[in-house]
Amino acid sequence: MALRLMRGRGFGTALLLALFSALATNAGCVAPAIALSDINTAQAELAAARTAEAPRLAPYEYTLAEVYLDQARLRMGSSDYQESYEYARKATAFARQAVEKAESHAEPAAASPAPAAPDLAPAAASPAPAAPTPESKP
Predict the structure, then answer these.
(1) What whole-number distance in Å separates Cα of residue 27 and Cα of residue 36?
(2) What is the predicted pLDDT for the residue at 24?
(3) Which one of 18, 27, 68, 95 is separated from 2 by 20 to 30 angstroms, measured CA to CA?
């Protein structure tokens, strides 16, 4: 059969079919690596968000990034690599938004000078008015 395909017009078709099946087989091996790479990227971005105090300054974005990262890990464990990839991408995007929002909230506080402490010391007693002297009477 292989010899017959190699002769004539069938050789190009057989070669194309072999190339296509090799690519299709390798595509299954690449998907877990891509999903795992994106999960690692999301973890790094989430760590950066934590460092930027995003849980306090951007809680919505930070929480979404955590939830999407958890889902990405869960889908990776279930061998649903496409879903894992998509959740990891969403986690990365929300973690980056959390960093941006946290940094924008932190900058005005750092840029403005600290307010002066109120003067709580008691006011100095003003000197008592001088008693009129007989010379000062008109």
Answers:
(1) 15
(2) 47
(3) 27
